[in-house]
Amino acid sequence: LPIYRFPGVEVTVRAKADSLFPIVSAASICAKVSRDQAVKGWKFLEDLEDVGMDYGSGYPNDPKTKEWLAKVMDPVFGYPQFVRFSWSTAQTILENRAVPVHWDDSDEDSDTKKNTPSVLSYFTAKTDTGKRQPHRFFHERKLEAVDNL
Predict the structure, then answer these.
(1) Phi, psi of 143 (to 5 degrees)
(2) Closest to 92 measured CA to CA, from 118, 70, 71
(3) Is residue 78 left, alpha or beta, with left meaning phi > 0 and alpha meaning psi from -120 to 50?
(4) pLDDT tens digit sequence for 2-20
(5) Bridge partners of 123?
(6) Does the reported pTM lie above 0.85?
(7) Which of 56, 88, 118, 119 is most deeply buried (CB count within 10 A of its CB)?
């Protein structure tokens, strides 16, 4: 994890900080109000006309929220972009109601796996020392890097 340094500012990280520090309580309330405003005007990319927008409070124990999650969940594609798939409430509904998926390429004995480069190989530094071509954006505008001023 990155370490952020704030000269002259002491930062305390503690579980349940919103109940221990008044300033954190205030920030938490501001964040919730801001989120509620953003959610109220949310424009879904997906067509959810038949589901409705009454998703409750959005908190894990809210029965309305759970009911809405169950209604909008597609058994193959999951949830609309609005829903965080990593949220445990959403994950539980997916695990119980979604179509199970088996990825053939994840089998240990697969010949395909042996002949396929790892995804990580695409993120390693290349050994080619040739000059890197500029992006099309720069080429089209006849822009060049300035090495010396």
Answers:
(1) -95, 140
(2) 70
(3) left
(4) 566 677 777 788 899 999 9
(5) none
(6) no
(7) 56
Cα separation, 17 vs 23, in Å, equals 9
Sign, CA torsion 131/136/142/143: negative
- Distance of alpha carbon 23 from alpha carbon 104, whole angstroms: 51
Identify the burial level of 78 via C-beta atoms within 10 angstroms of its C-beta, where 0-12 means exposed, 13-18 middle and 19 or more buried: middle
Phi and psi at 74, nearest 5°, equal -90, 135
Q: Which phi and psi (to 5°) does residue 48 adopt? A: -120, 25
- DSSP sequence for the chain: ------TT------TTHHHH-HHHHHHHHHHHHHHHHHHHT---SS--TTT-S--TT--TT-HHHHHHHHHH-BTTTBS-TTS-TTSHHHHHHHHHHSPP---GGG-TT-HHHHHSPPGGGGGSPP---SPPPPPHHHHHTT-------
| Measured distance CA(69)–CA(76) in Å, rounded | 14
Alpha-carbon distances, residue 107 vs 103, 116, 121 (angstroms): 8, 13, 19
Interacting residues of 28 by C-beta distance below 8 A, sequence separation 6+: 18
